[in-house]
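Q: For a teaching session next week I want to show students how multiple molecules come together into a single three-dimensional assembly. I've collected the sequence lines for a complex. Could you give me the predicted structure tokens for the whole thing so I can convert them for display?
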Amino acid sequence: MREAVPARKGAAHDSVSDLVDDLLAGNKRAAAKLISLIEDDEPEATDALARIFPHTGRAHVVGFTGPPGVGKSSLINRLVRKYRSRDRKVGVVAVDPTSPYTGGAVLGDRIRMADTGVDPGVFIRSMATRGHAGGLALATFDAVRVLDALGMDIVFVETVGAGQSEVEIATRAHTTVVVEMPMTGDAVQTMKAGILEIGDVYVVNKADLGNEDVLVANLKFQLTARDGWIPSVIRTAATEGRGIDELADALDRHAAYLDQTGFRAKREVARARLEILENAQRLLSRRVANRSRMGRAFDALAEDVAARRLDPHAAARKLLWPTRPREK
Amino acid sequence: MREAVPARKGAAHDSVSDLVDDLLAGNKRAAAKLISLIEDDEPEATDALARIFPHTGRAHVVGFTGPPGVGKSSLINRLVRKYRSRDRKVGVVAVDPTSPYTGGAVLGDRIRMADTGVDPGVFIRSMATRGHAGGLALATFDAVRVLDALGMDIVFVETVGAGQSEVEIATRAHTTVVVEMPMTGDAVQTMKAGILEIGDVYVVNKADLGNEDVLVANLKFQLTARDGWIPSVIRTAATEGRGIDELADALDRHAAYLDQTGFRAKREVARARLEILENAQRLLSRRVANRSRMGRAFDALAEDVAARRLDPHAAARKLLWPTRPREK
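A: Of course. Below is the structure for the complete assembly, covering every listed component.
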């Protein structure tokens, strides 16, 4: 467990500096406000993230991907309780690119998860970040950083599906969990291309439906090592709470493996590369939109391109390196 | 009609320079090769696009969006024939972010469209550009530029749906066409939010199903002017060829309107702004990936971020402006 900074009780959230102080003291309301700033792509979020950054890097981040309806929310709900019973603080960021969850089972889970809101060791947040200038993945991991600074020991990132962007988000975590379920009846079990290369832990959920042996055998046959780690395959029945202990153990084993081998640092560097480029993109978009010297230069470049005096690639080079000679 | 540069018959495509010469001479095979380079995000594509850029800007570009199954392919197929009968050269770029078309009617159209391949005044190309470093929209309009330089008078950009990225692509064209169809039975016709603001021409396709009057009336009641232009609403039955003359006339009227009012230049500038930023993003991604001075600086920044010595936003600022003091 981490040291807690004393909370400034009853203080008004006047500034980003106060919000950050409250966050570091474990104040969940400050965390919620900061994540809203990130969601809305507010410039204050940049300041806040710079301040909290030195206080991050302690949480273990687990990304979940898998087709809709496979039971990711139920699994995470069970895992939250399991980790609380092991006295670990747990954060959840549910990435929702379009709209709030609907539909019986998932909504039910969401409500049950919200019940843990009185527990200071749990923080759950759904993020709607459509149109974020730095991209969905950047906003998601900025929010993860807030939960990290809040003092959470483990943070789950839940995506809604297994599409390109969901997989990209899940694989930026320290541990990537791929959730599948057995097909019933005569349907042939097919895995999405590429899904066998991305997971550190594979979960065969809804094992109570039967038919799971074929899927488990298929996975074990096809999976190959990632960073020297042979992916675990865990059977669960999330709605009944079966297999959750084994899943939590597998997550902890993988976290320990990353620490022992140095692969945690390697994954941090890989994520840093992506985040620096995404921040650069956002910084450029913001800078050219205002009435700065760079904004005026950009306006002139756009006029030149529209008039076919300059091609867009050459214009981009001038925007990035206005005075430097061309570098090959 | 445009002047044709004499073709270099039988010449091998040894270099980008040769490919561009052949393209400007009206060689469709050169166009296909250049679009493949764009699709694969090859650095040669950048050189080629810089060379052809001064020869572009003459084609009128029309983007189509609308839900899957609404008949966009059939409409475009009919429009291609219509414009050929008016002695106009026509290009089509079908944007396909995931996989080739499947399904009876659409595939049927695609095959019929391919039949026009012997006509030098038609060029049709499906683009699969998943994972393009500059984004799907950038790759699409780079391909449009190839067809423009090939000498096409009008280029149709066909998207597969009406999601965020499809709408973004369609609205980068000079003229944006939104295709809808009447609902049959008791279903209530609802329009996606925002769809009423983006179109210059609205098509109510499958008018032969009946019930189209309600949709047409709804559209006319709700549509407002865009750049001073009140959007046209056209009824078509693409499979029977009804309404195609009226649609082509509406497209030509809008093209003339853009020329007369200066809004064509305004739209070119808006697209240039987006394309410059996207090119800058791609340029950065490429530059940091190689063993240049900038690549080494980037590696060091990523190490600093992973070690929490520097936050990703500050690292992005150092990447973009290594020597400049911080500008607010």
